[in-house]
Recover the amino acids of this structure.
């Protein structure tokens, strides 16, 4: 399936993905499987700072939506990665583990884990559709600007 | 009666090494989204070594730590290995994550500036540099870090009254040549109140921190003690600190070189064959 991109407020993002609006993570369905890939959206990456370390849960571990599946570290700040969906960790991106800087370079491409969904209905709690994603992302840019969390 | 919100101030005084870490881990774990912010203070009664969540235990000379009687703890926040003792006053500001600044850079700026202010109150020309370094001129004055634990965000730091650079260098696993260079760099770049000629007491430092943080948060300081829920979380963290799986930390990462941070912008880069070089980067001060 061809990728569908959009630019919002100077940020490039995929509009054919699901987004966890609270955690600024993208979720991409892997065709023909019940698996999804999870990664940072560009705002999630930017407000985290320059990521220097990543730890991810063990393959085979089950996480519930909202529970941590790993941690990221930037500027000595450690924050949890909270699962956008419930599922079993089926794969971890070794490239990200070995060189976390790839998250800073291209968060749209650098996935963190692949989850096998255990409750597909949770997708309904994520944002999807180009118009909704664009509207949400633009509002988030404004919110972060007002808080001084991203550059004007 | 003041209408200002309260800043709970929990001054635990001089505590066992593990408690100087579990105290604020527990306060953060127990925090609920609508809770008041907490400023906690403590000093470890005895020396120990503390390592950041993602750092490899192999960065430490565990034999040397054991011989000197220094326990090793892993913390839930970031940064490298640090030597801790009773000549350091630890401070931690913990607040609900939803009321904390939304970016890491902003978080440090808002919650470390009061720490720099408190050092100025003590007579030092301290300022916040880079993202999270408190310095006098080009000398580091405080170890800092931060993280989200449960529903809370915590920013931590210390007021260093005096610092034994040679012990800090001794607890790291370094080839001897690199260790000597690291010690030289530490003496050059890591300072203390004593080295800066400031003769302040722990009580004076604590009072300055309380005043600065209360002012910055627009809150009225209220002396408090840990709640029962916080106490249970503190106990849980102390148990976790003793678990091998927790202390062992992350899997080793393939790397041809190891970088040992001296202060922001100054690193010792050590190659596998023991050779080393000093790397320096100039960064703009915060707000520049």
């Amino acid at each position: 399936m061809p990728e569908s991109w959009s630019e919002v407020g100077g940020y490039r993002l995929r509009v054919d993905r699901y987004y966890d609006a609270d955690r600024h993570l993208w979720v991409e369905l892997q065709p023909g499987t019940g698996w999804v890939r999870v990664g940072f959206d560009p705002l999630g990456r930017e407000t985290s700072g320059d990521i220097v370390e990543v730890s991810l849960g063990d393959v085979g571990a089950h996480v519930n939506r909202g529970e941590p599946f790993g941690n990221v570290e930037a500027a000595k700040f450690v924050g949890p990665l909270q699962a956008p969906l419930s599922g079993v960790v089926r794969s971890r991106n070794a490239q990200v583990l070995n060189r976390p800087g790839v998250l800073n370079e291209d968060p749209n491409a650098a996935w963190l884990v692949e989850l096998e969904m255990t409750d597909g209905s949770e997708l309904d709690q994520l944002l999807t559709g180009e118009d909704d994603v664009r509207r949400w992302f633009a509002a988030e840019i404004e919110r972060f600007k007002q808080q001084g969390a991203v550059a004007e | 009666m003041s209408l200002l919100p309260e800043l709970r101030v929990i001054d635990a005084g001089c505590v066992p090494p593990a408690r100087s870490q579990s105290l604020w881990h527990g306060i953060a774990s127990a925090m609920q989204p609508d809770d008041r912010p907490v400023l906690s203070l403590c000093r470890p009664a005895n020396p120990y070594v503390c390592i950041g969540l993602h750092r490899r235990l192999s960065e430490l000379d565990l034999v040397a730590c054991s011989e000197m009687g220094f326990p090793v703890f892993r913390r839930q926040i970031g940064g490298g290995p640090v030597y801790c003792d009773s000549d350091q006053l630890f401070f931690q500001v913990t607040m609900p994550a939803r009321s904390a600044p939304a970016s890491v850079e902003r978080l440090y700026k808002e919650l470390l500036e009061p720490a720099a202010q408190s050092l100025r109150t003590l007579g030092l020309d301290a300022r916040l540099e880079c993202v999270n370094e408190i310095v006098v001129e080009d000398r580091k004055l405080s170890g800092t870090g931060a993280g989200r634990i449960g529903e809370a965000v915590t920013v931590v730091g210390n007021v260093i009254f005096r610092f034994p650079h040679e012990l800090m260098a001794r607890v790291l696993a370094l080839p001897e040549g690199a260790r000597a260079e690291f010690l030289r760099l530490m003496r050059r770049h890591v300072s203390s109140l004593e080295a800066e000629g400031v003769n302040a007491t722990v009580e004076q430092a604590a009072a300055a921190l309380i005043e600065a943080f209360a002012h910055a948060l627009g809150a009225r300081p209220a002396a408090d003690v840990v709640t029962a829920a916080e106490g249970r979380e503190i106990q849980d963290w102390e148990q976790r600190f003793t678990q091998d799986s927790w202390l062992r930390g992350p899997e080793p990462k393939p790397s041809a070189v190891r970088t040992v941070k001296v202060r922001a912008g100054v690193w010792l880069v050590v190659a596998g064959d023991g050779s080393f070089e000093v790397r320096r980067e100039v960064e703009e001060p915060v707000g520049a």
